[in-house]
Design brief:
Elements: E1 2-3, E2 11-15, H1 19-38, E3 44-48, H2 52-64, E4 75-80, H3 82-92, E5 99-103, H4 109-114, H5 120-129, E6 131-141, E7 150-153, E8 156-158, H6 161-176, H7 180-189, E9 195-201, E10 204-210, E11 212-216, E12 220-221, E13 225-226, E14 238-243, H8 248-254, E15 269-274, E16 276-280, E17 286-288, E18 291-294, E19 298-310, H9 316-323
Parallel strand pairs: 2-3, 2-4, 4-5
Antiparallel strand pairs: 1-6, 6-7, 6-19, 8-11, 8-17, 9-10, 9-16, 11-14, 12-13, 14-15, 16-19, 17-18
Helix pairs in contact: 1-5, 2-3, 6-7
């Protein structure tokens, strides 16, 4: 763990003002006050993105123009939901440019997985404090949505029931807020049938029916579902959770347990770790960090320590890293 050098450094804050049904815009003045309190005068650049494409461009330009020298280390900060966090990690991943994350959405699963406070002002203080950690990302390769062939993922790659819940939940977020994913899970359960997966896990081929196969870097997705309770963003491993076929009644019983992680103790749930996973299967659809990923096959690998992030000094992740 290191500390960012803030003297002469520029912090670029990219904000999605509509995140959290307008929460981001309402809390922005308090966030700015916290940042300005601790950052050098004139070093903060604020950009409000009016579209996903504009936010993507702002993030990319901030990283491209960042100065990384012995005396200064410019950084990118993103504020909003998991969508803009996804843009942030893909802009900053592999570059050495520090990334700050300020949660102001409905899910906030990446911040939850990393240990960043879900209160936006407290998250801004984490950036002011300047403590950095190199964390892992998941790299996904395939024919991805929006024409790409490679993308970083901070939380979870979902492809089955979980992905369909995520897609429906995102469309319901404006009306239901933080309850959107729980409601979507119940709606999708009415018609979902197990899917036949074709997997290769660290070279071992497996073909099996499953409700879902979740490949996790961070432990949370779907607005707080704890799909991988033992996942760590600093262990260099992918955490794989497989939910084998169960009746709808059994799945209904398991759903509430997904929010505290206790569902993994059910006999129908299998867990393992790996460095590389290949996922394929008919009728699968991919979702990652709450964003459309495309259709498998996907080649998924863990990229250790590829992203530099601001993290609380008191966070358990930091304490574990200091002991190593």
């Amino acid at each position: 763990m290191t500390k960012n050098t803030v003297e002469n450094a520029t912090t670029t804050l990219v904000v999605n003002p509509t995140a959290g049904r307008g929460k981001a815009l309402k809390i922005l003045p308090k966030v700015l006050n916290e940042l300005l309190r601790g950052l050098p005068e004139g070093s903060l650049k604020v950009l409000q993105a009016n579209s996903y494409a504009e936010a993507q461009r702002f993030c990319a330009e901030a990283v491209e123009n960042a100065r990384l020298t012995a005396d200064t280390r410019d950084c990118l900060v993103v504020m909003g939901g998991d969508g803009i966090m996804h843009l942030g990690i893909n802009a900053a991943g592999g570059t050495g440019v520090p990334l700050g994350m300020i949660p102001a959405g409905t899910g906030n699963d990446l911040c939850r997985s990393v240990g960043i406070p879900l209160d936006p002002v407290k998250a801004a203080k984490v950036i002011v404090d300047g403590h950095l950690l190199n964390m892992d990302l998941t790299s996904v390769v395939g024919k991805l949505a929006h024409g790409g062939t490679q993308r970083y993922v901070g939380t979870v790659v979902g492809t089955g029931y979980d992905a369909r819940v995520g897609i429906r939940g995102a469309s319901m977020a404006k009306a239901w807020g933080s309850l959107a994913y729980a409601v979507a899970a119940l709606v999708e359960l009415k018609s979902f049938e197990p899917v036949t997966y074709r997997l290769r896990i660290d070279g071992e081929e497996r073909v099996l029916p499953a409700m879902l196969v979740a490949v996790a870097n961070g432990g949370y997705y779907g607005g707080g579902m704890h799909v991988a309770p033992t996942a760590s963003v600093t262990d260099g491993l992918l955490n794989i959770t497989i939910a084998h076929p169960v009746s709808r009644l059994s799945m209904l019983r398991l759903l509430p347990k997904m929010f505290n992680g206790s569902f993994v103790n059910d006999p129908a749930v299998e867990r393992c770790t790996a460095k590389e996973v290949m996922i394929d299967g008919d009728g699968l659809v991919g979702l990652a960090d709450g964003e459309a990923l495309g259709q498998p096959p996907f080649g998924i690998t863990c990229e250790p320590g590829v992203l530099t992030v601001f993290i609380p000094i008191s966070d358990p992740l930091t304490r574990r890293r200091k002991k190593k």
